[in-house]
Structures are given as structure tokens and as C-alpha cells.
Amino acid sequence: MSSNGHPPVKRRLTPLDEAMRRLLGLPAPATRRITIERDLPVPMRDGVCLPADHYSPATDRGKSPTILIRTPYGRGGSNPRVARAVAAQGFHVVLQSCRGTAAGTGEFAPMRHERADGLDTIAWLADQPWYTGQLCVFGFSYCGYATWGFAADAGDQLVALMMAATAAQFTGSLYTGGAFSLDSALTWVWGLGALGSDPERQPTLIESWLRRSRLHAALAHLPLAEADRVATGQRVGFFQEWLAENDTAGEYWLERDHRSRVTDVQAPIHMIGGWYDVMLPCQLDDYAALCKAGRPPHLTIGPWKHNSSGFFRCLVSEAVAWYKANAEGRPVREHPVRVHIGGSNQWRDYPQWPPPGARPKPWYLHAGGGLHTTPAAWDGRDVFTYDPNDPTPALGGPRLAAAAAGRQDNRRLEARPDVRTYTSDPLDAVVEVLGPVTATVYVGASRDHFDIFVRLCDVDTSGRSWNVCDGLTRVSASAADTSGVRRVEVTLWPTAYHFKPGHRIRIQISGGAHPRFARNPGTGAALGEPSDLVPVRLEVHTSPLYESAIALSVAP
Fold first, then answer.
1. pLDDT less than 70: residues of the chain
2. Which of 106, 146, 266, 322 has the highest count of CB atoms within 10 angstroms of its CB?
3. Cα separation of 127 and 459, whole Å?
4. Nearest 10 degrees: Cα torsion 15, 141, 396, 316
5. Which of 521, 516, 544 is nearest to 184 (CA)?
6. CA distance linking residue 50 with residue 40, whole number of Å
7. Contact 88, 81 (CB under 8 A)
8. What 3 state SS string does 463-498 have?
9. What pLDDT digit, counting tens, does each position of 107-130 carry?
10. What is the pLDDT of residues 61-113, one digit of tens each?
């Protein structure tokens, strides 16, 4: 790479570029001529150099804002086409590789260098003749975390942020409910390894099949300390750290946690999430913090999975509209919150989230599989065994890979002997759940270490059971009462869902969801250590004393 990157290339938009613009839902371009500078060296304070590509519009007259995207995923693939389409809207687009990725020097250590590297990149922008001092930031997934790292220190030049499927910390997503999110962690490690040293090279079909086979083998492999080698062929240092540093309140994660600075960001923020996105709960924590500080951001939540194409198409069009509106000082829409209502396929606007007046309404589990709005009148116990040698599988829901995520018919899962279901009578009227969902399950267990997975489903008139939201809690030697019963609190993903009359509400309870969550061996062994796999006998208690229930946020 030369000191100034490759010579600038001027090009006109092609029919393929026009097709990309239409696919992304962007308005007519402000220009059809784009100048591209590849591999511009951006110096960091420690001597590391991070390459960046610059896409500039021919319409620039010293007034065009700059959109900065910092990514560990390379600058090839569909990125150039998207960057050209956005630049044609009248923006400078700077696409920069994170440290240690895509020809950048240094070592890629996730979440460690993003604050300093982001601020050094902004300092470099300030020296560029085309930079106007108006900075917009685009942050999807890890790119969004990288943005949270420096956004609080970017100052007045920061015009607007688009933060999608991301959060200011990743601990809540990596250790959901105290369990290790194996699928998200290992799929991400595998995906980065699949990019290799040349992220712009497209693998052959055979290569793709072999890589995916290695991932499936790694997700099933024990001990977990060897799973990175199975997935990628090598030891991955940061994956080993995640297995060892599972104390989310420890120094390792505190150094990588930007939540304390979220409310210091002064620029307008638009958050976009998906109901089946792995990052949604943590993202809504950031939203709540900003609201509490008196600076509520815009919020859009759709029926999307983390890497679904529909999510990305909406994200780009919303981002361009958001940047233009804030650069021009005009409103985007009347209400700051817009959410998709599952079960009715409607979009609805609100002044805040959860909607004003939404309150938790309990639905109680009854012996024999009933679910009612009144507590159980007599004692009941539903017994099943969770066997980590044959772990209860994950089916749909929030998964990092879009193909494995989302709504699915759960009847096959519910037929397993290690899954218990509790189902309401057919509904006489609409039930709309709008906001947080939590469950309280009273459990007896044959061992001190176990998991409780709870899922909310919509059973349609043909008997198909569609997952709405779910969550898991890992129990580790918690105190039981004199009868050996433990109260287990499970926080499910939030939702906005419309249960139709004639449908039934169903609750699933099981002892895991593998490989979404690492299986619980039943021994209390550390994450990466070899361990025996010991089945655990679980008893779900339903009685006037043990009111196992799920609380659904219902609007008046």
C-alpha cells in the first residue's frame, strides 16, 4: 500500500448500481458520478496503519457530510456497491477496516482498541481537504459497538448516528441469563476465520460447504476449549479469553463496556433492531438509558433476524433518510418509536417504548399443561429429564445466522420428552403483548447446576406452534426452600405481538436450547474444561404456594 493509497478512480453509476439503489429503497441519486480512493492509510497513535476506502460524490461543493463505517468484515463483497449507492445520495463514505483485519496492521483484539482507533480516525478525517466537519456514523452489529467506543468523545462534529443490531457492551449477549451464547460466539469466530487474509475473495460452493460442516462439528464439540480449532483450524485467542473471563463484572469486561458513556453522546441517535435479533435486549438497555437521561432516541424494531437481507435493506434506506434530515435540521417522522406487530403484520408508531400504560399481566401454569389467567388451585408437578448427552435443541428464535433464526413451527420440538408445554384455551378476544416478557418458574432439581429455558408461542387454529420470544437462566447452586424448590426468574426477549381470537397462548419449558446456549453439564465445571455430562431431573411446580407464571406486558 502506497502512502496515499491507490490513485483515485472516477466512475459513472452502472445499471447494476441502479439496481442496488432500487433494492435498498433509496431515492433518485443526487449524482451519477463517483470518485473512489482505495486503501488510504489511516495512521494510529501507536504506529499501526488502518486502510480505508473513500467514496466521494461529484456533487460535493464543500457541503457534503461524511459517513464513517469502521468494520472488521472487510471492504469487499457487496460493500462497494452499497457505498457507491450511498455516495450518490450526496455523502462522502469512508469504509475503514478495523485493526488487524483486511490488510490492516496490528492484531485484531475484539472490543479492545475501538475507542482509540476511532478517535484517531476522526483526527485523520479532520486533515482531509474534503471533510466539512459534519460526521455521520453507521453502526451495524460489531461496527455499532466500535461506534459506541468513540461517539461520546467525537464532539459537535457528530451530526447523527444510525445504530442497528448493536449495543454499547456485548457481555449481555455473550452470557445471556448466565449461560454462554455458544452459537453467537462460535459462529462469529468461524465467520471471521472464513474471511481469511483475502476477505474480497468469494469461496467456491465446495469450500462453503466444508466451512459450514466444520462449524456444525464445532458447535457439537466438547470440550469447548477445542471448539475454535474445530471451526477454524487454529486456536483463537479471544475465544479462549471469553471462555475464561466469564465474570461479566470483572476487569476484562469492564474495560470493554461503553455503557457509562452512552448518555454522553449528544448527537441524535436512531436505533434499529429486530425482534429475532441476538442483540435486542442489550440494545433496548441503551435505549432506556438515553430515555432516562432525557434524550430519547428514535427506535425502529422490525420482524428481522440479525443478518437478514430485509433488515439490511431497511437499515440503509432509514440511515440515508436519518442523516439527511439531521444535516438539514428537519424532523423524520411524527413519533420517535415505530415497531412491527407480529401476528398481524402491522407497523405502529408510539411516543415511547414500551407504550404508555403497558402493564404486566400474569398467565399461570397449571398441572397437566394448562395456562390460565388465574393461579392453580391445587398442587401439581411436571417432571422431565434434561440430558446434556442429548441436549434439547434450539429451534429458530434469536440466532446469529439468519438461516437458523426466526419463527418456526415448534411441534417437532414440543413432541420431545424433555420439553413441557402449557397451553391456554382458545382466545375469545385479541391479546396484544407490547414490551418486556418475564417468567417465574418454581423448580425442583436433582442437581445444583441446571438451566431453565422458557419460550412463548402462538398456536394457530391448525395447531401449529410458532415461537414468539424466549429466554434462558442458568442456575448454579442457588438456595432452595425446605422442600428443595427454587424460584427461577427468566427474562425473555421483549416483543410486540398480536394473538388473534381462536389462537392459543403456549409456554414451553425445557432444560436448554443447544447450540444457542452451551449445554449445562450438570457438574458446575468451568466453560472450557472437560467435564462429565450428567442428566438432571427437573420438576416444574404449579400450586397456590408455587405460582409458576409468565408475565406478558399488555397495553390497556
1. 1-3, 104, 194-209
2. 146
3. 59
4. -30
5. 516
6. 8
7. no
8. CCEEEEEEEEEEEECCCCCCCCEEEEEEEEEEEEEE
9. 899 999 999 999 999 999 999 999
10. 778 999 999 999 999 888 999 999 999 999 999 999 999 987 767 889 999 99
